[in-house]
Specification:
Blueprint (H helix, E strand, L loop, with lengths): L2 H5 L12 H18 L11 H11 L4 H14 L3 H6 L2 H8 L6 H17 L7 H4 L7 H12 L8 H10 L9 H13 L6 H14 L18 H5 L15 E12 L2 E6 L10 E2 L2 E3 L5 H16 L1 E16 L2 E15 L9 E5 L10 H11 L1
Helix pairs in contact: 2-12, 3-4, 3-9, 9-12, 10-12
The structure holds iron/sulfur cluster.
Length: 375
């Protein structure tokens, strides 16, 4: 479309007003902007499905700046889907340590095994088939299909939800069924016939760099003249602010039970907060006062591990947050008294030499404690 015609376009104020000419203008403006402003990110250098997949899973709930180093280390350790499928889950979790949301790593490993066993090591190209793999939902499947295989597959994630909502001045709840339907449909309708890989990445990049959550830079935005929220002055109201979460404060105890230079460690079960990771015996503490707390610790360590211990001093108190919980964690030193490990293949418990703690995948607080006891 000639630039002169484009300039006459008036920003649409609803999805219904987003005409073919608006969509054409959006594609052209967006791709021109992306050609100038795309960041050099490690996962963009070689867009094979494996790398796209790893980066997309890591980027869920995590900032680009954090993911860069994790991605580089992960690819160096497991350069392709076969090498990932061949290792033990514990090795994947160890490399994932600190990135959080560990279920992602476990599903990544399970999906790698499926790609090798069911698809001879090649990623399916079809969006529906991709979604049959553990941890791959509609968005990730769309990202892999479009970025790695240049298929006309739409995407909708945090950045594009915000961008589309503003472009359309969509004031409804983006996560509602109606909101999802509107936004996915828009994501599909604006796709170009070719070059979808760059187009989808450009959408996410614009959302991430320009159409940011708090201070959208509308004066720098290539889509400003097409944006309904900008026209209506609603860019700060869309998307609607989420209600502030109410936090629950809890007190927990982690117990460092020592025996001949080793400490007692257990792998967290499937229904626990850190399923698959290893941890010191840890539980919520109901008692108040040091005497009652120690009695409770003796009983709970025995129930969790089969081991009798004598709790000593609190070595450190850590404060951290998990979802809506604000946790105060007292780390108790304790000595082994007796008892037999209640270990099983599904829930292993073992005495671990301090030098071996580096090999186990631990939560961030677990690693803090391990560093403390290894001094
Ligand atoms: S004009 Fe502003 S609100 Fe609209 S898409 Fe661009 S940055 Fe976002």
């Amino acid at each position: 479309m000639p630039a002169a015609t484009e300039r006459k376009l008036t920003a649409p104020t609803t999805k219904a007003h987003f005409t073919a000419a608006h969509k054409q203008s959006l594609r052209r403006r967006l791709l021109a902007w992306y050609a100038k402003h795309a960041r050099d990110l490690p996962w963009r250098r070689l867009c094979d499905p494996y790398r796209v997949w790893i980066s997309e899973i890591m980027l869920q709930q995590t900032q680009v700046a954090t993911v860069r180093d994790y991605f580089t280390r992960f690819i160096a350790a497991f350069p392709d889907v076969r090498s990932l499928a061949a290792v033990e889950e514990v090795d994947v979790l160890r490399l994932w340590e600190g990135l959080g949301y560990y279920r992602r790593a476990r599903q990544l490993h399970a999906a790698a095994k499926q790609v090798v066993e069911l698809h001879a090591g090649s990623f399916p190209r079809d969006v529906v088939e991709l979604q049959s793999l553990p941890g791959i939902g509609r968005y990730t499947a769309g990202a892999i299909a479009s970025i790695a295989f240049d298929q006309r597959a739409p995407i909708l994630e945090a950045n594009t939800i915000r961008l589309f909502s503003r472009l359309l001045a969509f004031t409804g709840e983006a996560t509602s069924a109606a909101g999802q339907s509107t936004l996915w449909k828009f994501a599909e309708e604006i796709l170009p016939q070719k070059g979808v890989a760059s187009f989808n990445q450009a959408l996410m990049e614009l959302g991430s760099l320009v159409c940011t959550p708090k201070e959208p830079q509308c004066d720098q935005c290539p889509l400003a003249s097409l944006c309904a929220a900008n026209k209506l002055g609603l860019q700060h109201e869309i998307p609607a602010a989420k209600p502030r979460p109410t936090f629950t404060h809890v007190r927990e105890a982690a117990i460092i039970v020592r025996k001949n230079g080793s400490v007692l460690m257990r792998r967290c079960g499937e229904n626990e907060r850190w399923a698959g990771l290893w941890d010191f015996p840890r539980f919520e503490l109901d008692s108040t006062g040091p005497l009652f707390a120690k009695q409770e610790i003796v009983a709970k360590v025995a129930a969790q591990t089969g081991i009798q211990c004598a709790p000593g001093a609190i070595l450190k108190t850590l404060k951290h947050g998990v979802t809506r919980y604000r946790i105060t964690l007292d780390c108790y030193d304790a000595t082994y008294i007796g008892g037999r490990l209640k270990s099983s293949p599904a829930a292993p418990i073992r005495w671990t030499a301090l030098s071996q703690l580096t090999a186990l995948p631990l939560s961030t607080t677990g690693r803090n404690i391990a560093t403390l006891v290894a001094r």
